[in-house]
Amino acid sequence: MRWEERDLVRAARELGHEVILIQVTKRPFWLTRPNELGNLDFTIQRCVSFYRALASTVILEEQGIPVVNNSQVIMSCEDKLYTTAKLAKEGIPVPETVIAFSREACFEAAEKLGYPVVVKPIYGSWGRMISRALDREGLDEILEFRENMQSPHFKVHYLQEYVEKPGRDIRAYYFWGEVPAAIYRVSDMWKTNTALGGKAIPAELNEEQVDLIRAAGEALGGGILGVDLIEKGSENLVLEVNGIPQYKNVVRVTGRDLSSMIIDLTVKHFKK
What we know:
This protein has nine helices and eleven strands.
């Protein structure tokens, strides 16, 4: 287990709840008979693998066990195409983004966005496989790699405007309508993910940013979410929403007991 899972167990037990640990790789999950998981009030999904998380969540839900986050939220947050389309539909500000299915369409889109452009996989996390094309030649080289990868989702090209950040972005947390904590992820590199060396420092959010985080969380279905903001001058844009967020670095630098908040607010949600 990662730090987050161990701390969730600690928090749940301290709050007086019984905890049953389910390691999805150590047992079969039946579709045609009960899985004998005990009398569970709800489960908290913490699989690192998106596909394991989604599959195990669907099975539990279909057998009547509530999961946080539910399968629709997990699927919506994992797919950057859906996430951005949903946020844009709800009027939530996001970077200019376009999908293309061929090199010719990518070049046309990039000319309209203006170089540099950011090219992302529609599935993925921790800043992996995200590239920046400074010009048409650079974009052509990125597309050459993508089109020769085995996974078919790399043939769906997600292009986004490059935003000149003030050396940081914001990772904030949405728990059932509340925004309990946030950090700046600071780096001299253009990718500021802490997984890639970005430094976490506490962030003080203004009212506009809190409202934006709440709106993004509601748009993607609510629950327990990580919301990434990027500052474009005086404007705040929602970059991504994470359906199974990590938060060790946030607890470390803010001192907030996020695990206890997750347990307490989730219990209150299901008691309503």
